[in-house]
Specification:
Layout lengths: L16 E11 L7 H4 L1 E8 L2 E6 L6 E5 L3 E6 L13 E6 L2 E4 L9 E3 L2 E7 L4 H15 L3 H17 L14 E11 L2 E10 L2 E6 L9 E4 L3 E9 L2 E9 L7 E6 L2 H13 L10 H9 L5 H11 L45 H13 L14 H8 L4 H7 L14 H10 L50 H12 L2 H15 L5 H6 L21 H14 L32 H6 L8 E7 L6 E6 L5 E6 L3 E6 L4 E7 L5 E6 L5 E6 L3 E6 L4 E7 L5 E7 L4 E6 L3 E6 L9 H4 E6 L4 E6 L5 E6 L3 E6 L4 E7 L5 E6 L5 E6 L3 E6 L5 E6 L4 E7 L2 E6 L3 E6 L4 E7 L5 E6 L6 E5 L4 E6 L1
Antiparallel strand pairs: 1-2, 1-9, 2-3, 3-4, 4-7, 5-6, 6-9, 7-8, 10-11, 10-16, 11-12, 12-13, 14-15, 15-16, 17-44, 18-19, 19-20, 20-21, 22-23, 23-24, 24-25, 26-27, 27-28, 28-29, 30-31, 31-32, 32-33, 34-35, 35-36, 36-37, 38-39, 39-40, 40-41, 42-43, 43-44
């Protein structure tokens, strides 16, 4: 069936298209002689607020007749010979009708006066369709809310009579559930029926506007399912499928949150569904490490915050980053070329901000600084008018904006955003999308937008002097977005839009307050009984713009400097190719067991690889100290250290002294050169559980089951521990201390406890710097990152986490199959050992699992890696020590 030029965008936003009829349009002055000449073949569309005739002749205009302007709607009573014998003709008289797309050219609509139309229905029955049209016409005379309520009742009645045809199923396909939902595209809401089967998701629209009578998505092709907020209500669901599917994505809005959640829950239960979800915390760390570009990260944050290209009320928002649009040359290395990302657009001009704040102080509650938002449907289409003129005509009742108010010049728009008391808009992704070459800046369709006051015809957007073309302009903006200058400050803008400065007291301090209807929770629509008031508020929500869903409650971490180069689309920060070739751990596919030592009689609790990578030293629950030569592949020393299990062992860097922690509360000094215990002292009131040495500060830290950490000073110089003289400080905890480590610069000491708490202590002052509660069980191991800005921990809850120390934000959180007992972070590698004997090797810069292997029959209790990364050593509950090399 030929659908012609008709589109839902020709209707009012939110208007519903029900059905259509094959028909002839017969002008009122038609006679028997002129009938064949004047009649127009086409389709008559019955919609909730209008009748639309779509002629087959593309040169003829589409005619829309608003039902509210109809004065006569009846069966034609004339007796003209050219009419069919049963007089199956609809007569329509109206005060106004609208002509659109005449000559098949996109142009402002023509609003015409009184007219009369006759529609001869070829197959439809006038006695069936006329009552339905008259019912809709009566609804059009009601107040907006009552009209919407009556149309909703009509829609519900029509939809209840439509059943899903089971013939769409394959042979073994079974239905799971059925519900109703609207398919959402920009400015368009199309109702339909959703059916979930064991193999596919179906959307059956209640009209024939879609390309197919039923849209089908294979569950096996679905890659992402995202719950969305639609009109500040949690009723949306966006579904993405792979490129081989005829429906790459679909955005659905449900009647209630329960309807949405019911479908979502049932989708996740289907065995055919194999999602490839990106975890938020992994994405943050990838971005911070430079393996995700600023552009891709902002797209991801927008998606996470319910911003979608399918919803103009929540279109993705991007920042202005360049502030110079007038110079002939733009220096991307000059900070003066950039906008201050720590401030919202409304606060960039101090003079304007003071005037806004003065108004704010005089305002009654609810107060706001900015009455206009940084992203609304009108602002989005302001930028995209050349690319999507039909959207603008839909939103603006068939008209383009005044030529002087259109998007004519980049420099003028930025200037207006800095000075106008009601213009605070940010940008959209298209300004940075180099794959589209800036096509939204070009009037490629040749649309007649009119002439400006100076006689200039509105054409392409005027670009800054420092660029040659739209393609070049977008590329320069993208390079600016990926620059170190922007990367250094982008986290501040993220705080304003998606994070901790988005609302509340922090937003007030940052001068980032908008009209209350822009915020989720600003008003409870369900509690408003007055339908007219509720409808008016819904319209306001759409027009004012919506604050993105808040996705960060703590300050966003800063990105590392010097990671991003000038990027082409979809590129990420390049790796050092030589490093990748030379470092076998980059592409490790398996581990070779190089040596195995099994002389311990109980669990190996701690081991270290010596500084020259030639020996492995271990202690265990059998009270034994063992030394193994890797060059000779054999044990070269065994010593009995007391009668109690040994928990930990470290080697002092400048001498052959081992420091050993014991369950008998003692710290033991062992001289490797002479093979004897030189000192043993009671260091705690309970078992010593862990030790760490601060090389730069010459301090020893010991943790204990007595809930304390003690820091010892300069004892190594005399080879003697004297608690009174050597004890520098004691750090108290709420439960037993399980692990500890110094930061690379020795400024901080991190400690983990049995109740899941992590403490960061200032080493100089012995004061608590920060405290985190990140795990639901005991912390088993902890380590600073090589540069000291992050902290990794793992625990009995099977989770390992990487946090940014300055903000406390989780940059990476991953749940594995069993309890994690030990870890080692060296350069880009993170090694993890688990209770079930699995060794995990992660690239913690790219944040991906490189390899995992069953390394021990029991739990892995300790991991260490050679300083040159040539091998690693593991010790376990199976009493064995193993040496592994990458292959």
């Amino acid at each position: 069936m030929d659908k012609g030029r008709f589109s839902l965008l020709l209707l009012e936003p939110g208007e519903i298209y029900f059905e259509d009829f094959s028909a002839y349009l017969i002008p009122a002055d038609t006679t028997t002689k002129t009938y064949e000449i004047k009649k127009q073949t086409g389709r008559l569309k019955m919609c909730s607020k209008s009748l639309v005739f779509d002629p087959r002749d593309l040169n003829k205009p589409i005619i829309k007749i608003p039902l509210r302007d109809c004065t006569i709607l009846e069966q034609f009573k004339g007796t003209a010979k050219f009419l069919n014998s049963n007089n199956n003709v609809l007569s329509v008289s109206c005060k106004q009708h609208i002509e659109m797309l005449e000559g098949n050219v996109i142009a402002p609509y023509k609003f015409c006066g009184d007219a009369r139309f006759l529609f001869l229905l070829n197959y439809g029955n006038i006695k069936d369709c006329l009552p339905r049209i008259c019912q809709l016409q009566r609804a059009s005379t009601l107040p907006a809310a009552d009209q919407a309520d009556m149309i909703a009742a009509i829609v519900h009645s029509r939809q209840a009579r439509v059943a899903f045809d089971p013939l769409w199923f394959d042979l073994y396909e079974q239905p799971v559930m059925e519900t109703q939902a609207d398919k959402i595209t920009p400015l368009v809401v199309n109702p339909g029926r959703i059916l979930l089967s064991t193999a596919r998701l179906f959307f059956q629209p209640y009209n024939n506007i879609e390309t197919e009578p039923v849209l089908k998505i294979k569950l096996s092709s679905i890659t992402r399912i995202v719950k969305r907020r639609f009109l500040l209500r949690h009723t949306g669901l966006e579904i993405y499928s792979d490129e081989n599917n005829s429906v790459p994505y679909i955005y659905l809005a449900f009647r209630t949150k329960n309807d949405r959640d019911n479908l979502y829950g049932n989708l996740l239960k289907q065995s055919e569904l194999k999602l490839s979800e990106i975890q938020k915390d992994l994405m943050i760390l990838q971005w911070q490490n430079g393996y995700v570009s600023n552009y891709d990260y902002l797209l991801y944050l927008n998606s996470l915050a319910d911003r979608s290209i399918n919803d103009l009320t929540q279109y993705p928002v991007f920042p202005w980053v360049i502030s110079d649009y007038t110079s002939k040359v733009l220096d991307l290395n000059d900070p003066k070329s950039y906008r201050d990302l720590s401030k919202p657009v409304g606060a960039l001009n101090e003079i304007r901000l003071q005037r806004l704040l003065e108004r704010y102080e005089e305002m009654s509650s609810p107060k706001f600084i900015y009455g206009s938002h940084y992203s609304t449907p009108a602002f989005v289409l302001f930028y995209l008018v050349r690319l999507y003129p039909h959207y603008v005509l839909c939103l603006q009742n068939g008209r383009f904006d005044h030529p002087d108010r259109m998007f004519n010049s980049i420099a003028d728009v930025y200037k207006n955003c800095l000075s106008n008391m009601s213009d605070f808009k940010e940008l959209i992704p298209e300004f940075y999308n180099t794959e589209q070459d800036g096509e939204f800046l070009v009037n490629s369709m040749g649309i007649n937008f009119g002439f400006r006051h100076n006689g200039t015809k509105v054409g392409d957007v005027e670009l800054p002097p420092w660029t040659e073309s739209p393609k070049d302009f977008v590329k320069i903006l993208r390079n600016a977005l990926e620059s170190d200058i922007v990367s250094e400050k982008l986290h501040m803008w993220i705080d304003l839009i998606f994070g901790c400065k988005q609302l509340g007291e922090e937003a007030k301090k940052a001068n980032n307050l908008f009209y209350y209807l822009s915020y989720e929770g600003g008003i409870d629509l369900e509690a408003i009984g007055d339908l007219n008031k509720r409808h008016a508020i819904e319209v306001q929500i759409m027009e004012f713009g919506q604050i993105p869903k808040q996705i960060f409650q703590v300050p966003h971490p800063q990105r590392k400097k010097g990671l991003q180069l000038m990027l082409e689309p979809s590129q990420i920060a390049p790796k050092n190719i030589n490093e990748e070739v030379l470092d076998p751990w980059r592409n490790v596919t398996s581990l070779k067991l190089d040596m195995l030592f099994s002389t311990h009689k109980d669990t190996v609790s701690s081991l270290i690889i010596t500084n020259n990578n030639t020996k492995v030293i271990s202690v265990g629950y059998d009270s034994k100290l063992k030394v193994f030569s890797l060059t000779q592949s054999r044990q070269i020393r065994s010593a009995n250290i007391g009668d109690m299990p040994l928990s930990s062992c470290i080697q002092l860097p400048t001498m052959n002294i081992l420091v050993i922690g014991s369950f008998d509360n003692n710290i033991v000094l062992y001289d490797l050169e002479f093979g004897k215990v030189t000192q043993s002292v009671i260091a705690h009131e309970d078992a010593v559980t862990c030790l760490a040495w601060g090389k730069k500060c010459n301090l020893l830290a010991s943790g204990s089951s007595d809930c304390t950490v003690r820091i010892w000073k300069s004892f190594a110089n005399s080879d003697v521990i004297k608690p009174v003289q050597c004890l520098k400080s004691q750090l108290d905890h709420n439960s037993h201390v399980t692990c500890l480590c110094f930061s690379p610069d020795n400024d901080y000491l991190a400690t983990g406890t049995g109740d899941g708490e992590i403490y960061i202590w200032d080493v100089t002052s012995s004061s608590l710097h920060k405290k985190f509660n990140l795990h639901k069980g005991a912390i088993k191991a902890i380590s600073f990152s090589p540069e000291g800005q992050k902290l990794v921990s793992c625990g009995s809850d099977k989770i390992f986490q990487v946090i940014d120390i300055s903000t406390g934000m989780a940059l990476c959180s991953k749940t594995l199959s069993s309890v994690l007992l030990c870890l080692k972070w060296q350069e880009f590698l993170l090694l993890l050992g688990s209770e079930d004997g699995i060794l995990y090797i992660w690239d913690i810069v790219e944040v991906k699992l490189l390899h995992q292997t069953k390394a021990h029959e029991g739990a892995i209790r300790i991991i260490d890696m050679a300083s040159d990364k040539s091998f690693l050593a593991t010790g376990g509950e199976d009493h064995q020590i193993k040496i592994w090399r990458p292959t």
